[in-house]
Amino acid sequence: MAHVKQSFSSLFNCFRETQSLFLKLVRWDSCLDTHEENVNFARRDELNRSHRTEREESDGPPNYELNVCHQDPGYESLAALPCAQVKLLTSWEAGWNVTNAIQGIFVLGLPYAILHSGYSGLFLIILAAALCCYTGKILIACLYEENEDGQLMRVRDTYEDIANASCKKLFPKLGGTVVSVTQMMELIMTCILYLVVSGNLLSHSFPYVPVTEKTWSVIAFVTLLPCVFIKTLKIVSRLSQLCSLVHFIIILVVMTYCLTQTHQWSWAKFRLSIEFEDLLVSVGVIIFSYTSQIFLPTLEGNMKNPGEFRSMLNWTHFFACVLKSAFALTAFLTWGDETKEVITDNLPSFLQTLVNLCLLTKALLSYPLPFFAATEIVYACISRSNHHNYRSPLFALGVRGSLLLLTLLMAMFVPHFALLMGLTGSVTGAAMTFLLPSLFHLKLKWKKLAFLEKCADISVFILGFLCSLAGIVCSIKGLLEVFGGG
Known about the structure:
Elements: H1 2-13, E1 31-35, E2 38-42, H2 46-59, H3 91-102, H4 110-117, H5 119-141, E3 144-146, E4 152-154, H6 159-166, H7 174-205, H8 213-223, H9 233-259, H10 276-288, H11 296-301, H12 309-335, H13 349-366, H14 368-384, H15 393-413, H16 417-445, H17 451-485
Antiparallel strand pairs: 1-2, 3-4
Helix pairs in contact: 1-16, 3-9, 3-12, 4-5, 4-10, 4-12, 5-10, 5-12, 5-16, 6-7, 6-16, 7-8, 7-13, 7-14, 7-15, 7-16, 9-12, 9-13, 14-15, 16-17
């Protein structure tokens, strides 16, 4: 049970980035609009018409590799939201969002995972990158259907649309509702954890200031107030770029220090772990450091050239795999059996302060992405109910402000939030990353899949089920230990 407690202590002390798993849905209601050989993604309402001319003049009509056509006439989309303006992303900008998702703070726990898994841990880092990249691709494939001419048509926009299409015969709206609720839970908890993390980091960075950790969280909250004015995905992408830059600085500092200690390296420290609980901890840390599926459908829908999505996904995951492997290996070789759950705790004190401030900056820059995504889900629900004020700018500002305040209140008053987040992440993380993409792909594409493709999807589905089940068991054990020991 010690390893189970350590894995959840890691969620709290290492800045709870289980949500890098969830991180970062960018909720956006987009569709495809065709003009002969060229296609544009656009909103389906007044916003679509008002921005289409501006977009074509500034960017020109993009050429797609896919011949994607009209929206499925039987598909009912959400009304456009007044807060979201149409500004399409380049592949580079989309790649920054994915990088922000799969290069989260949770990477700092990879050396600890290597400690428990040895050579198998390095293999898991590579395997997890390949599997997460694969499930991202099959999830996007579920957005498209072929027309009578064999051309691919983008008939769905979001993860919820895919879920609704998969459950169409039995429960037409159940799948989308479950996915929407799951996403909202993950995003809100992600925002809350960033506030908790910020308070924790400020408290450790300035230990001589007579201020409590919760008060530091309130101070961090004040710096996040401008988030209520964020209306476009372009702004969020810029913040993701800065966030990724700060993350690379952190990795660079740690790896540079490790390379100065090469005289202490010993490959004899490596071993092949066979203890199930140790390996389970490692699997959770490694797999959940790659998750980004939750927002990929809407991200792809907002790219200027969706035909470049697959290559973008390939190079972002390849780059993440190389960086994570190098980082985990050099850090473990430096500290060996003394490797701590959060590798920055192994650094000398003067470097710890610098890294903590960088981590604080990263946490604050990461907050707008899940917050923006959560507000889009709220607006979508309000638009469904035809609330008479939902198009009012003041009403939109009030909704964003209320959601921002909610995250602060929950960060202040919810006990054992890190453990509850661990349970939620164990249930939803593996499901949204492995189980659901493979299930939906099998359901929607069964007749067109080759035998090996079916085997691959079934294998990934079984893996997702086992990971989710194991995570639930370990999370419940951790919660029972806390409440039972109290």
